[in-house]
Specification:
- This protein is mainly α.
- It has two domains: 81 residues, no CATH class; 132 residues, Serine Threonine Protein Phosphatase 5, Tetratricopeptide repeat (Alpha Horseshoe), CATH 1.25.40.
- Helix content is 82%, strand content 4%.
- The chain has nine helices and two strands.
- It has a two-stranded antiparallel sheet.
- The longest helix is centred in the first third of the chain and has 102 residues.
Length: 274
């Protein structure tokens, strides 16, 4: 097989040979006139130019063919670079997605934590309010007097009184004693002494009952319980067989509280003592 370069050289030689033959023929044989010779020369020249252009084209094609591997390699390198760039971009996107998801999770957790903290604060505030309400003094209106008492104070008084209503006189007496010791300035003092005297009277502890009934009257003489307290003192004195003291107490009752029901009962008892 003839190489492209050899083929081109051979074609040039043939053209030259043809020109020489034509020229020789024209000169020696005289077969063509001048016009035909010119046409032949132009035709050969045109063919020569065509062949020269073909040669140049083949040369460029051969050069391009030789450079093709380099071009392919460049394209491959560029393709690989693009692939690496795409991979790096994809990795960066995935990392950003992961970071975003992490931040979103942290934000959601933070939101839950804040909500839980707010709930605890509300519960704590509510608990403080409840405790404050339990600790705040309450207004009491008793036996014509108005005073403030701590919730615990009210609770203990009601507890002692509840024991008395259940006829647990011994436990009630002790509960009232504890109450009066714990709250010596309590607005319940006069009433507490009165009910303590009743519990002691029921337990037949007449001497202590007399002391507490009298103390109740001294603490609040205007109380509606004072006439009953004096009558109870007289009853206790009678139980102790001290009729003289009972008579004096009944006289004091009638003198101090003449309009009371206790005074009416005291008159009957005083009449029997005479």
């Amino acid at each position: 097989m003839v190489a492209p370069s050899q083929s081109r050289r051979l074609g040039v030689r043939l053209v030259c040979f043809a020109l020489w033959c034509g020229y020789a023929s024209a000169c020696c044989a005289g077969l063509f006139d001048d016009e035909e010779a010119r046409r032949a020369i132009l035709d050969l020249r045109q063919k020569f130019e065509v062949m020269e252009q073909a040669r140049l084209h083949d040369k460029e094609a051969a050069q391009a063919f030789q450079e093709m591997p380099k071009t392919i390699q460049l394209l491959r390198d560029e393709n690989n670079q693009i692939k690496r760039s795409l991979l790096e971009t994809q990795t960066l996107i995935e990392q950003m997605r992961a970071d975003f998801a992490k931040q979103l999770g942290q934000q959601e957790q933070l939101t839950r934590d804040v909500a839980e903290l707010q709930r605890r604060q509300r519960d704590l505030a509510q608990g403080v309010d409840d405790r404050m309400r339990r600790l705040e003094p309450v207004k009491i209106n008793l036996e014509g007097r108005e005073f403030l008492a701590d919730p615990a104070e009210v609770k203990e008084f009601e507890f002692a009184l509840g024991l008395l209503r259940k006829s647990d006189f011994k436990a009630s007496a002790q509960a009232f004693i504890d109450f009066l010791r714990r709250y010596p300035q309590s607005g319940y003092q006069s009433v507490g002494l009165f009910w303590l005297g009743n519990a002691q009277y029921a337990n037949r502890d007449y001497r202590e009952a007399i002391v507490n009934f009298k103390s109740s009257v001294q603490a609040h003489a205007a109380s509606s319980k004072s006439p009953e307290a004096l009558l109870a003192v007289a009853n206790s004195q009678q139980e102790l067989k001290d009729n003289r003291a009972a008579r004096r107490t009944l006289e004091d009752l009638i003198r101090l509280y003449p309009q009371s029901e206790a005074a009416a009962a005291g008159k009957d008892r005083l009449a029997k003592l005479k």
